[in-house]
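Tutorial, part two.
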Amino acid sequence: MDLDNIKVKSTYTDYESVLDGLTEEERQEYFMDKCVEIVKAKSEALGRPYTFSVQTFGCQMNSHDSEKIIGILNRIGMVEAEDEKADLIVFNTCTVRENANTKVYGHLGALKKLKENGTVDMIAICGCMMQQEDLVEYIRTKYRFVDLMFGTFNFYKLAELLYRRFTGKEKQIVEVLKSPEKSVERLPQKRKYSFKSGVNIMYGCNNFCTYCIVPYVRGRERSRTPEDILDEVKSLRDEGVIEIMLLGQNVNSYGINFMDESEIISNNPDYGFPELLSDVCKIDGIERVRFMTSHPKDLSDKLIEVMKNEPKICRQLHLPVQCGSTKLLQKMNRHYTKDQYLNLVDKIRKEIPDISLSTDIMIGFPGETEEDIQDTMDVIRHSQYDQVFTFIYSIRTGTPAASMEQLPAEIVNERFQRVLDLVHEVTAKSSGRFEGTVADVLVEEMNDHLDGYVTGRMSNNILVHFPGDSSMIGTIQSVFLREAKGFYYLGEIND
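Running the prediction step on this input gives:
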């Protein structure tokens, strides 16, 4: 069915005068209301609800953005499809590594015929890929059937962009901002879990690691005000949320640049991440607090002290090292040495003995030698991580490392496998050290593979499967960790 022929009462341009003087939140509420009318008409024409599917690539920040995108689509009357087949398909993209881009192109290629025969009504692409001009132009010209393209700074305008596409003559709308223009605090949100939620505390990154595209696609650091963050946490608490994850590209530098409602940047040297973390923990009803990601160069003694003394803070810390070679760390612009990182690990473990550490390891950075790999493996052995995210360096156009001499793929692949083998050995031993103990587990869902079992996470984020029923979902249970299975536990309720 050609849903473009569904008649709507007015066009986008008819309403510009109505919008004068409205705040950005009010403007987007207005367009959500107008989209409700159109979605209702389309659903009636179809004889069923107009459906959508949001497919997310990348990090926790993208996942959190997708929850807001889903919230907007629910708000205007669309219904989430049970699979990837839907009337509207949204790709929230990542561009940290090349394979993320490749996956998006593969999905688009598969959708071409479905778009042409009317099975799919509309396709939208947003997120970090859209902040790169060359990728926008490539998709715009090669995949002309894509309807909407927007970036990381204006995803909150989804309803307005949809309205333009529904009512205007534009067959392809591309709107990508180079930098943020507005801070929109109140958006609808559909969380995967009703009892836990991410909360953005800051946006962007100032570190400019030589391999990383994030500062170019997410912009410079901008911290939300403590008042806005704490108000959001309290609202989530009132909705039944008991676990909060504070999100930022580098949470340790929170507070260097605050943004207020007028987007004026201000500073408060006396209020940083340790203070915010303490204030979040003071909110009654919030039982667990997590955060990511921490840059090692900015992790302060004050933060370690807060983590040590606040029982609500989960015993988990993601501390990306990237590699163990001081020489390469300097080339990466990471601002710490191998010894400084290991001293930090030792200090954290001394102060918080039950902490679980996770990290990121990159293999194949330009100039890497066998000695550098041995340094990286030494860091893995010393740090005894519970979880390691390993990946091969990927050229990101526009970053300084892209112009450096690259290593042969066969050498990189061999090194990657050696490091991966060590990671499996170390993490299985480290994460299994809790066998035979009792832990509090936040139950997330029924287990898909073990009948009569539920699945949850310990404070340190390790998965536990144990006998239970759906009434336990969203509650914290005391569980005996009967058997370590490498990367998860089998347990039973502790009577």
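Residues 274 and 303 are 5 Å apart (CA to CA). In part three we will examine how such features are distributed along the chain.
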